[in-house]
Amino acid sequence: MEKKDLTHFNIQKRAYMVDVSEKKDTERIAIARGEVIMQRETLRLIKEERIDKGDVLAVAQIGGIMAAKQTSQFIPMCHNLLLTNVDLEFQLKEEDGRIIITSQVKSIGKTGVEMEALTAVAVAALTIYDMCKAVDRGITIAKINLVEKRGGKSGIYRRVE
After folding, report:
1. Is 5 a catalytic residue?
2. In the chain, where are the structural domains located?
3. What is the pTM assigned to this prediction?
4. Is 125 strand, coil or helix?
5. At a CB cut-off of 8 Å and minimum separation 6, what does 156 contact?
6. Which residues contact 9 (CB under 8 A, 6 or more apart)?
7. 77 vs 14: CA distance, rounded Å
8. DSSP bridge pairs for 89
């Protein structure tokens, strides 16, 4: 693997936000994925919408979308981006008590949306934990990663598993 210079440090070796003003606007797409592991009974309660706090997946969907839109507020070097689309999907794996969360984020701009896609998954997973912790404190959030990104000078990246 080729070593790249870090670009988030100025001449005084202090952190700064990278200047992207000279970059071309291109369509940017990022897909991220993660999973929430729980007791099968907890997953059944979610599926049947019997968690006391409400519809877990609906709230997690909204939480993930809101988080993607606010990513630059809590990731210090992220640019504030105009997102053109944020979507999340939840795949219930009842046989082993897992929910697979996949987010897709789109923008037309000068910098990628990977952090927004990852943040959407992370906050959706945390929302699931928050809403279900009263019935299952052993819930685990795992394997949050970038699956794919498109756009910009670096082109396409696809995770190889």
Report:
1. no
2. 26-151
3. 0.93
4. helix
5. 148, 149, 150
6. 15, 16
7. 12
8. 102
Q: Are the beta carbons of 94 and 40 closer than 8 angstroms?
A: yes
Q: Which of 148, 150, 139 is nearest to 103 (CA)?
A: 148
What tokens appear for 159 in the block? 């995770």
- The catalytically annotated residue of 5, 52, 87, 130 is 130
DSSP letter at 28 equals E
* Other Cβ atoms closer than 10 A to 99: 25
Neighbours of 159 (CB within 10 A): 12
* Contact criterion met (CB below 8 Å) for 124 and 63: yes
Question: Does 26-151 carry CATH code 3.30.70.640?
Answer: yes
User: Exposure pattern of 105-120 as b/e (b: 16+ CB <10 Å)?
Assistant: bbbebbbbbbbbbbbb
Per residue of the chain (161 residues), give pLDDT as tens: 455 565 677 788 888 888 899 889 999 999 999 999 999 999 999 999 999 999 999 999 999 999 999 999 999 999 999 999 999 999 999 999 999 999 999 999 999 999 999 999 999 999 999 999 999 999 999 999 999 999 988 889 999 98
Q: How distant, in Å, are the alpha carbons of 5, 43, 96, 110, 111 from that of 21?
A: 19, 46, 47, 7, 10
